[in-house]
Amino acid sequence: SLMGRVVGSVGELKVANYIYDQLESAGVVMLTPRDGEDFHIAGTIAQGVANKDTISSRNIIGLVPGYDKELNKEYIVIGAHIDHLGINRVTVDGKEQIQIYGGADDNASGVAALIELAREISNNRFLFRRSVLFAFFGAEEIGMAGSWYFLNRSRRWRI
User: Is-above-0.70 flag for pTM?
Assistant: First the structure.
């Protein structure tokens, strides 16, 4: 139903909303809006994107603060990407068919594991002296643009 979660698609947005809701219900402090921190990057940085095009995607960032007043400004960052390849149109016996790249192991399984890890860490926050930042990146399939944006341009999540 998400049509392969291609970058900038409605499917990618639905995944971002789902992740946000799951983290929020687990007690994770959300640092981005529900639709994610959206970003737009000129296509020259991404493989397969024409120079005139713009990559539009989003990151979802959540935090479990560490309990130690001195060490809680240090962060453990754990991430997964939310996008995948989308669809491909092929002709079979003269009829056009849509081939959906579901992405179960690239990276829906990583997203599921990270959501569960966030839930467990949130429930056991008393064990963590340092803060744990959960980053769900968009646009990994086209040049890892979401993680690049997180490291180089993002301002909302900074504490």
Answer: yes
pLDDT-based confidence at 159, cuts 50/70/90? Answer: low
**Residue 106 DSSP one-character state:** I
Q: Residue 46 CA to chain centroid, in angstroms?
A: 17
- Count other C-beta atoms under 10 Å from residue 148's C-beta: 18
Q: Cβ distance 125 to 64 under 8 Å?
A: yes
The beta-strand segments (E) located in 65-125 are 75-81, 86-92, 95-101
Contacts (Cβ under 8 Å, ≥6 apart) of 73: 131, 159
Angle at 103 between CA 36 and CA 112, to 5 degrees: 60
Reported as a single tens digit per residue, the pLDDT across 14-44 is 999 999 999 999 999 999 999 999 888 776 5
By the 8 A CB rule, do 140 and 147 touch? yes
Residue with tokens 């990407």: 81
